[in-house]
Amino acid sequence: MFPVVLASTSPFRRALLDRLGLAYEAVAPAFEEIAPEGMSPLACARLFAEGKALSLAPAREGALIIGADQALELDGELLRKPASLDEAADQLGRLSGRVHALHAAVAVHAPPGVPLAAGEPRTLAEIVTVELRVRPLGRAQIRRYVELDRPIGSAGGYLFEKHGPWLFDDVRHADEAAIVGLPLVPLCRLLRRFGVDPLAPPARA
């Protein structure tokens, strides 16, 4: 089996990937998240996931590389990841009492040597969209939350993997891993297409 690289050093994504029982290396991607003007949030999530995976391809030429990213959409607008606690609080204020979409993309880049179907690209991606309704929140509640989780750099200004569930009235998707940032079922589907399947019978000698 080819070595596996996760283009992320996020402890939350690493904890999710650990559940699959694969040996892998976690490496920070050499990729800057700059959304092209006018690009939809869904397309942006895919672009960033693929970009993270491809950014490590030259240095990890013989590995399967996993990239992942999220983009939050409110009324068709992409909300940038907050760079400060004040920005996180402002975003939560906008989301308060409303439904938003969280697009979670995962991409896998295959190295040379992996057999592909005719015309199949070496980088494949899938996107999961989760709809979340934030409960009505007052300013003091928002400030208390951002001080607890300090969600700088997290889409929407929240971390579902920490105290984030207290913020919501409803979550409309079964894949909690997508909310954290690494949708596992689509990832397993992509890895199987490139020949990674721990449940496959061992090859006979």
From TrEMBL:
Keywords carried by this UniProt record: Cytoplasm, Hydrolase, Nucleotide metabolism
Coiled coil: none
A Gene Ontology term for the protein's cellular component: cytoplasm
Location of the protein in the cell: Cytoplasm
Annotated positions for site Important for substrate specificity: F12, Q70, E161
EC number: 3.6.1.-
Required cofactor names: a divalent metal cation
GO biological process, one term: nucleotide metabolic process
Listed Pfam families: Maf
InterPro entries: ITPase-like_fam, Maf-like
Active-site residue list: D69 (proton acceptor)
Catalytic activity: N(7)-methyl-GTP + H2O = N(7)-methyl-GMP + diphosphate + H(+)
Function: Nucleoside triphosphate pyrophosphatase that hydrolyzes 7-methyl-GTP (m(7)GTP). May have a dual role in cell division arrest and in preventing the incorporation of modified nucleotides into cellular nucleic acids.
Alphabetized PANTHER family for the sequence: 7-METHYL-GTP PYROPHOSPHATASE, BIFUNCTIONAL DTTP/UTP PYROPHOSPHATASE/METHYLTRANSFERASE PROTEIN-RELATED
Family: Belongs to the Maf family. YceF subfamily.
Protein's UniProt name: 7-methyl-GTP pyrophosphatase
Organism: Sorangium cellulosum (strain So ce56) (Polyangium cellulosum (strain So ce56))
